[in-house]
Amino acid sequence: MFTHSLQRATVVIALAVGPGAAFAQGPNLGKPISPADLAAWDISIMPDGSGLPPGSGTPAQGAPIYAQKCAACHGANGKGGINAALVGGQPLTTGIDTTKTVANFWPYPTTLFDFTRRAMPYPKPRTLTNDEVYALTAYILRLNNLIGESDVMNAATLPKVRMPNRDGFIVRFPDKMP
Amino acid sequence: MPSSHSTRRGDDLEAVAGNGLLDRRSLLRGGAAFAAAITGYVLSDSAAAQQLADDSWSAGAGRLLTDYEAPSPFEKNVARTLSNPKGETRTSHARTPHHLLNGTITPNGLHFIISHSGNPDIDPGKHRLVIHGLVQRPLVFTLDALMRYPMVSRMAFVECGGNGALLASKEPLNINVQALHGLVSCAEWTGVMLSTLLDEAGIDPKAKWVIAEGADSLAVSRSVPISKALDDAMIALYQNGERLMPGNGYPMRLLLPGWEGNMNIKYLRRLKLADAPAMSFYEARTYSQILPGGKAYQFYFLQEVKSFITHPSPGLKLSAPGLYEISGVAYSGNGRISKVMVSADGGKTWAPAALQEPVNPKAFTRFRAPWRWDGGPAILQSRAWDEAGNAQPTRAEMIARRGETTAVPNVLAFPTQHYNTLTSWGVERSGEVKHVHA
Fold this sequence. Notes:
The complex is a heterodimer of chains A (178) and B (438). With 178 residues, chain A is mostly helical. Chain A has a domain at 55-165: Cytochrome c-like domain (Cytochrome Bc1 Complex, Chain D, domain 2). Helix content of chain A is 35%, strand content 5%. Chain B has 438 residues and is mainly beta. Chain B contains 9 helices and 28 strands. In chain B, the strands form 8 sheets. A 5-stranded mixed β-sheet of chain B has the order 8-7-16-11-12. In chain B, strands 9, 10, 13, 14 and 15 form a 5-stranded antiparallel β-sheet that branches. Chain B has a 5-stranded antiparallel β-sheet with strand order 23-22-26-27-28, with no helix packed on it. Chain B is globular and about 70 Å long. The chains are: A mainly alpha (178), B mainly beta (438). At the A-B interface, β1, α2, α5 and β4 of A face β7, β8, α6, β11 and α7 of B. β4 of chain A pairs parallel with β18 of chain B, so a sheet runs across the interface.
């Protein structure tokens, strides 16, 4: 009978549900969220600079902010302390256990802005203004001689900073990449 | 096949590889006789001689039941080790004591944790999950809403990309299995398939990545290929039957079975579909591995096939020559374990270990092999293969591919990651077990 076979089909489907089952039907309980509300959530910044907020800063503006809010963990002038040094670094040919730094390792300058804005200062994250984050980013890039002394970092200039190790990477499993 | 005349001493069990490794089938065949012949470990002072009179616990009624059971007070040493017990402004690690556990499930209170800024106490009623970016309908989910969705349960290990990295040390270290491999655990996870939620939001064909973000203070973020998100990714809500532990992502985490632990974003609050990876701090900097020659791996993703012996291992002193069971765990981010071999002579000869059923994909498989210790020096190793045909690399193979450290690392350091080579335990005449290179 039709009903009977339908029930059997349901049983078979139920038995087949496993971790790999794609697109199981849900009750559609997600609520729409407006672009205005999303703006408060979306702090993602991409390597091409999309997502970078308005604002700007220079190395000179970043120095006093660094001394006040960052040096306790990262040391005076980025030399390192309880947490990572932000300046210097040995060539990666030194060994597989070479300390990774902004200058010797980080492929994109946007990562520096993003992580500073989302996670720093460690005890009070997301308390810096966008201008302060740009200024700190500029200060750290300047400490590493990656920008000029009077260069202004903003949404247009930051993504253009060429990091020394930009092409130093090998994708481990190309077949897993989109 | 040899005959099965196991004696109480087990002297006639057939050796199948050097230095006393026995046929794995004697575990089944020997039965009680084999069990009787097994010699114990010395964990602590021996118990006092048996009394004819009742012990206090038998002489009267026991204590009150509790509403949430805690282990016996005699098991207080079964605990995680903490890398940052005073909560300094740095990452904290809690490592699983594999040498004091058995089976394949890590109890929730002993599941490893890496926390970059402590465990947040999230109010589940206020937590939200947002899905947006390259979708047709940006959506926000409450936990109550997710609890109404169809759920799936599966076993899965979660392993830090840096677990076992000390194997890259150019010299062996004075460490046990907890210090070396304590950043992997295995649990049954229950939750909603991510594909169900992405389908509800409507995936824009331009979406190639899902950028996940947590509600911890650092808003830890990682980019996940959408193929993985649609394959077996889960929004995990339960861990071994109860709600997630705070250190494991309460009230919800992204579970990416078999993939690098850090990508399994805890306290999951946001998923943004994008056409490129974010190159977040943890993917662009932390979880990239420097190679000999100065290039670095990026987007390693997989936790590759690996095994290690938990018994015997450092801290479990062999009490006397005789029969022991060598056992440990094997797992692969590529699927099921297909074979584990064990050696008692530092890799010169090998014998197959028995695999405890069920062998689940991307989960711990317990292996066991009988071994007769003659009281002399021995070097115990295990080596695993997965169903995709990948073999756990020997130390020589690993060093050829990935190098080793230039200095002897601090035991809390991570000189590299994804270093899934063999672990060697040296058994000394005294019965002490130590980490060695072989």
